[in-house]
Amino acid sequence: MSDVLNRTVSAFNNRNFAGAGKLAAEGLANAQGRDELFWMGLLETCEGYEFLARKDMLEAERKLIAAMQKLRNFGFRYRNFEVAVALAGIRLAVEHIRLVREGRHKVFDVSLHPTLRLAAKADD
Fold first, then answer.
1. Which of 46, 73, 81, 121 is the most exposed place for a label (fewest CB within 10 A)?
2. What pLDDT band is residue 123 in, cutting at 50, 70 and 90?
3. Is the pLDDT of residue 30 over 80?
4. Stretch 5-24: mean pLDDT
């Protein structure tokens, strides 16, 4: 899980959301038990930001909400992935997507893309 997770985080942080999504799908394909839910949430995060990059606000919002619903089951940290940081960034993105969809903002501010982080030491 660690190598695929590292590559997924790296691709996401380089704004290669499609590549990160493919890596997350690879992680999901090899996951079992609780890891499956984690990888589903990470995959939906990548897909949500890919939709956002295409300016498909409705689909991006739907995917990111689904990702939050899955990832919030993992507390502050899961394995060596900083879940709380990812959730905070996703929540902020969803709020701004809604502002754009309501017409209160003209465009989505891409500086709001979160940076996913890995912890120095894993908590299992």
1. 121
2. very low
3. yes
4. 96
| Cβ(46)–Cβ(63) below 8 Å | no
Computed on alpha carbons and rounded to an integer, the radius of gyration of the chain in Å comes to 14
Catalogue the long-range contacts made by 87-92 (C-beta closer than 8 Å, 24 or more residues apart): 88/114, 89/113, 89/114, 89/115, 89/116, 90/45, 90/48, 90/64, 90/114
The span from the first CA to the last CA of the chain, in angstroms, equals 13
| Beta carbons within 10 angstroms of residue 79's beta carbon | 16
- pTM of structure: 0.89
Q: How confident is the model at residue 72 (pLDDT cuts 50, 70, 90)?
A: very high
The yes-or-no verdict on residue 120 having pLDDT over 90 is: no
Tokens matching residue 14? 């380089």
Strands in the chain per DSSP E: 77-82, 118-123
The span from the CA of 44 to the CA of 50, in Å, is 10
